[in-house]
């Protein structure tokens, strides 16, 4: 059965002409900015080349007329043999000039395309850096990013090339048209008319193709995801073990079949209409040829004139087609480029806006903080109030989805509260720039990064290097295994690149801890710090953490009560509301949720310890 897409794709959009005009200007400016020299060169060379077809036709006509005279014994009238050779040289010269111009044009276009691709990719990456973290959890942003990337390579250069082709076609058409006008008043209009149906068909189906692709964006993303699950190194074990492959493959194919069912009628219809247009065109060209033949029969034109007509038809049709499709091609390219601009126009957050915070954080105070994620209504935090001082460890406890990580996201200024205030050393945090506050914080997230880079890069993350790298490694209990790697801290990690050493889950986590310690921050945040560590390692890590937290504020999120109990202050969250708070002893004495959960987990350990046959906790 066909699976419904997760969400419907974005509707096809046709921006108004004002937007199109603005995009056109922006595109030309973008191309120019990427390489002014190559853009100017391409423009000049193309305009020069636009005169060549007419020049070739005229030279050919003169040569054929000359040859005609010569072969009928009137060489002297043709200007003599020398003149014929001169005409031939002219024709060959024009051809040679055409090749030189063409080659220079190609060079400029290729280099311009490369600079442009680089500039746009850089713009996209810079944009992504400035986007709100929330955007990355939003499917639409992903679509937008994917659409933007798809357009990087060809579209903007396509617009410029088409604009140049338009000018080029106009020049060529006017110059050849002037030559053809000599063959009778009807010839040129008939030949031009013959080009119109083909162009109309091309436009109509081009627009339909665009709409189909845009509708498909979301499906293509799901299909890509399915493919990536099938080829992922981190998922391969689970996928094999659960025999997930047939289902994934089938779904992947379903998306393809759905796309195919739209593609087939489109291709068939387009080709049927195209052949009808060709027939019509051939008919009109036939009529035009008849009128020229009639003139020839009356002796009103020369053989050269007829050759001009015969060779000129395809030129005129080609250039007229370029002229008509050029306009719609620019229009269509601009539709695609809108995807790029849509992404580049997404609002960014200025992380440096506000006063600069440059002191250690001594107290953090949540005052009646509430929060709902952007684009959602549901309050995930409600009236959250607590204070934590330097030297203290705060633990956040609660079931999945209670709001623990959200508190951390607010604390670390990835998001701003929608209600209430967060005070740092008694001052409203929102006054200060997010980046300057973040400098005082170090964090290890539940889903911390495993960067496919060297161990050293994993620890310093671009910060200037010093001896503190090894110190941080030692504090995280990672120094020993990192030193034992082939190149020590400079060993490439992960499987993605050749020569990379894969670490175990616990080792990666220790490396992330080293990263956390490496930043000399006054607030340390541990979101599930010990999830991938064994019991010994957990005890070691948590004890070390307590030792090192004396002059800092430590915030710990954990489901393990053995970790939580070490905190000075424990906040229990239920559905985004604090249900109780206090020290471990206070909460136990209170006999509330915390006490119940603690007793439950502790009894689990005791049971296991008593029962030798049961699973051991090692
Ligand atoms: N980006 C988001 N957009 C909308 N809702 C979100 C987003 N992230 C989290 N939520 C919702 O906010 C609530 C709190 O999530 P949060 O991640 O803070 O929980 P948690 O207590 O850390 O859970 P866990 O123990 O599973 O990590 C959940 O109901 C979750 O569905």
From TrEMBL:
GO cellular component, alphabetical, reads: plasma membrane
Residue ranges crossing the lipid bilayer per the database entry: 40-60, 80-101, 157-180, 186-206, 272-294
The membrane topology term of the UniProt record is: Multi-pass membrane protein
Q: Which InterPro entries match?
A: AAA+_ATPase, ABC1_TM_dom, ABC1_TM_sf, ABC_transporter-like_ATP-bd, ABC_transporter-like_CS, P-loop_NTPase, Type_1_exporter
Q: Which residues form the signal peptide?
A: none
Q: Does the keyword Transmembrane helix apply?
A: yes
Alphabetic keyword roster:
ATP-binding, Cell membrane, Membrane, Nucleotide-binding, Plasmid, Transmembrane, Transmembrane helix, Transport
Q: Where in the cell is it found?
A: Cell membrane
Q: Is Membrane there in the keyword field?
A: yes
ABC transmembrane type-1 domain residues: 40-332
ABC transporter domain spans which residues? Answer: 364-600
Molecular-function GO terms, alphabetical = ABC-type oligopeptide transporter activity; ATP binding; ATP hydrolysis activity
Which named protein is this? Answer: ABC transporter ATP-binding protein
Biological source species: Deinococcus sonorensis KR-87
């Amino acid at each position: 059965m066909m699976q419904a897409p997760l969400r419907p794709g974005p509707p096809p959009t046709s921006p108004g002409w004002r937007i199109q005009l603005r995009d056109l200007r922006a595109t030309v400016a973008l191309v120019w900015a990427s390489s002014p020299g190559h853009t100017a060169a391409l423009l000049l060379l193309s305009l020069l080349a636009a005169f060549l077809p007419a020049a070739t036709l005229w030279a050919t006509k003169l040569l054929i007329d000359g040859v005609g005279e010569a072969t009928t014994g009137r060489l002297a009238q043709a200007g003599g043999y020398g003149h014929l050779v001169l005409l031939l040289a002219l024709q060959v010269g024009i051809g040679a000039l055409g090749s030189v111009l063409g080659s220079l044009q190609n060079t400029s276009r290729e280099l311009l395309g490369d600079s442009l691709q680089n500039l746009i990719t850089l713009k996209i990456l810079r944009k992504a850096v400035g986007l709100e973290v929330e955007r990355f959890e939003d499917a639409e942003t992903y679509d937008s990013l994917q659409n933007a990337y798809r357009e990087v390579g060809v579209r903007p250069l396509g617009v410029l090339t088409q604009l140049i082709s338009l000018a080029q076609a106009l020049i060529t058409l006017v110059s050849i048209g002037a030559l053809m006008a000599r063959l009778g008043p009807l010839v040129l209009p008939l030949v031009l008319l013959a080009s119109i149906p083909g162009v109309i068909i091309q436009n109509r189906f081009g627009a339909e193709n665009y709409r189909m692709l845009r509708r498909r964006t979301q499906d293509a993303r799901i299909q890509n995801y399915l493919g990536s699950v099938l080829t992922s190194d981190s998922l391969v074990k689970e996928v094999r073990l659960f025999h997930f492959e047939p289902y994934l493959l089938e779904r992947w194919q379903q998306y393809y079949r759905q796309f195919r069912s739209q593609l087939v009628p489109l291709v068939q219809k387009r080709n049927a209409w195209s052949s009808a247009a060709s027939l019509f065109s051939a008919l009109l060209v036939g009529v035009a040829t008849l009128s020229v033949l009639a003139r020839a029969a009356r002796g009103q034109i020369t053989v050269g004139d007829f050759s001009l007509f015969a060779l000129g038809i395809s030129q005129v049709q080609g250039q007229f087609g370029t002229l008509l499709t050029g306009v719609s091609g620019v229009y269509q390219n601009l539709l695609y480029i809108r995807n790029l601009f849509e992404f580049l126009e997404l609002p960014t957050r200025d992380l440096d806006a506000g006063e600069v915070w440059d002191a250690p954080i001594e107290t953090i105070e949540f005052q009646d903080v509430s929060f709902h994620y952007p684009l959602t209504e549901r309050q995930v935090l409600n009236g959250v109030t607590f204070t934590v001082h330097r030297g203290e460890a705060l633990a956040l406890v609660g079931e999945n989805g209670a709001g623990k990580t959200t508190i951390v996201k607010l604390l670390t200024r990835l998001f701003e509260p929608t209600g209430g205030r967060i005070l740092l050393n008694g001052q409203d945090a929102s006054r200060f720039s997010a980046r300057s506050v973040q400098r005082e914080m170090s964090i290890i997230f539940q889903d911390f990064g495993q960067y496919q880079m060297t161990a050293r890069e994993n620890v310093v993350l671009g910060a200037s290097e010093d001896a503190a790298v090894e110190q941080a490694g030692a504090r995280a209990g990672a120094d020993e295994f990192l030193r034992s790697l082939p190149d020590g801290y400079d060993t490439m990690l992960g499987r993605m690149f050749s020569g990379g050493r894969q670490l175990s889950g616990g080792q990666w986590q220790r490396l992330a801890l080293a990263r956390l310690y490496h930043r000399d921050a006054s607030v340390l945040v541990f979101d599930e710090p010990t999830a991938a560590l064994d019991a010994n390692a957990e005890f070691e890590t948590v004890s070390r953490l307590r030792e090192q937290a004396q002059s800092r504020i430590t915030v710990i999120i954990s489901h393990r009560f053995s970790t939580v109990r070490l905190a000075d202050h424990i906040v229990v969250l239920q559905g985004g509301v604090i249900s109780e708070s206090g020290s471990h002893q206070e909460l136990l004495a209170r006999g509330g949720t915390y006490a119940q959960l603690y007793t439950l987990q502790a009894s689990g350990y005791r049971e296991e310890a008593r029962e030798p046959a049961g699973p051991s906790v090692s």
